[in-house]
Amino acid sequence: MDLHYWGSLSGDGCRLVAWLESRCVSILVGIGMQLPGSVARIWPERFTEAHTESFTTSGHYHGLYLIGLDWDGVDGEPISKLKLNLAHETLQEILQHFTRRIRGGESYFDPQRLWLNASLVPDSELGRMSPDDQDWGEYQSDDESSDEEVADPMEASSAGSAEPARQSKCKTGYSRAHKAAAPVPRP
Hints:
Layout: E1 2-5, H1 12-23, H2 25-34, E2 38-42, E3 47-49, H3 55-58, E4 61-64, E5 67-71, H4 81-103, E6 114-117, E7 129-131, E8 138-141, E9 166-169, H5 175-180
Antiparallel strand pairs: 1-4, 1-6, 2-5, 3-7, 8-9
Helix pairs in contact: 2-4
């Protein structure tokens, strides 16, 4: 997933990143439901391109989220060329659906300040990346409707449930999970 953001790091930027990260799991759910035999994992950290200027000097943030895909097969059966082509089409549809849902989140997605694309990229074309160390500040939400704004039939709905204020440190949304994962190879 490719995220470009122009705006303030605190407040709206942090709110957007926390909201986006909370929706990423729907890609895994879609893949799991629609492609039996596939294995998908989200790398538990945001990345930036290694040569990208910092947000403070450029006023533009470019972040990347990686989802790795593999084929376990159904009943140990290898994937045929036909099934591989069908799986590719299904993955494209899942990513397009996700992108449309995110862009439909009017309370969070502002097309004047945000561009998002989810696409299939071979690992040989990823280029040099480094973990995102951008400090997005803290985000507190007491908005009970934030979970229902971009409803998706593939996601479990928590609509109507009253939740206390949620707090997320945007810098550590994915980073917390990353600390328990394998270390990122540094260039």
